[in-house]
Amino acid sequence: MAEILAGRRMRRNRRTDWSRRLVRETALSVDDLIWPIFLVEGQGITQPVAAMPGVDRYSVDRAVAAAERAAALGIPALALFPYTNPDLRDESGSEALNPDNLVCAACRAIKAAVPDIGLITDVALDPYTSHGHDGLLVGDEIVNDATIAQLTAQSLNQAEAGADVIAPSDMMDGRVGAIRRALDAGGFTNTQIMAYSAKYASAFYGPFRDAIGTSATLKGDKRTYQMDPANTDEALREAELDIAEGADMVMVKPGLPYLDIVWRIREAFQMPTFAYQVSGEYAMIQAAAGNGWIDGERAMLESLQAFKRAGANGILTYFAPLAAERLTR
Ligand code: PBG
Q1: What residues sit in the active site (predicted)?
Q2: Taking a C-beta distance cutoff of 8 angstroms, is the pair 56, 65 a contact?
Q3: Which fold has domain 27-328?
Q4: What is the pLDDT of residues 189-223, one digit of tens each?
């Protein structure tokens, strides 16, 4: 084997489990997990989401139980998404400003029962609008600046209910700065902002739109505000602006198909960088596993490990409780 240079054998370190563990370059832990959960009106309700096997919508009392489970597993934070009653949806998404809306009620109930878990709330109007868009629709345009006024009010409403991290997912220009100023003026100087900085107009959000009930109502698509999947440099400019405007953490979404973006943003800014393994990614793994085509648990762990390898500090994933159970056992 003259071609093996100076006795180099890469396989030597891989022979045994102890050695593989010793040379492993990245580690996935429960500290890396953020669990997105869906909320629904009512009491004692756990409602399966058809396109996301293993994921349910919870009434507020059940969300509290989920938070208790998450805390027991050591999951640092939850992200909350409401299925708003269709009667409460209107043109301007006014339910987003209701201090007793589902997200606010869940924040208060979870904070009372599980004070030490982090609560991340999504800022965007899509769960509340009759047209399913993240912003205000005038004619056929999503108007930027008027939407921002609505989003800052939504952020304050969530902060008042006890949200720890405000996470704008709407992709309007200038919203991070406006939200930061509004939070500071309202006395919420400790409230963090996790910006969905590079959020792409993706087909992988399909099951989520079922979960929050916007797939039937969404008019058109979101390509005038979410990013073109073909672009990379633009993601860096988006992240740069969000950081300059005051983001404490940045996020890339979807996850696995966009690991190059995660890597470049982490490298460029050295900011806490998160990735969102979205509903369609979850559904693909669960569907293949459910058919016996892949080993679901191994695919889950491999996908989460890949985010760490790409430089993510943490991952929003519907697998969070399953992964936490696996990582702590
Ligand atoms: C919208 C929002 C979306 C997701 C999180 N926030 C969907 C969209 O932009 O239509 C998707 C999450 C997922 O697919 O898991 N504000």
Answers
A1: 199 (schiff-base intermediate with substrate), 253 (schiff-base intermediate with substrate)
A2: no
A3: TIM Barrel (3.20.20)
A4: 999 999 999 999 999 999 999 999 998 889 889 99
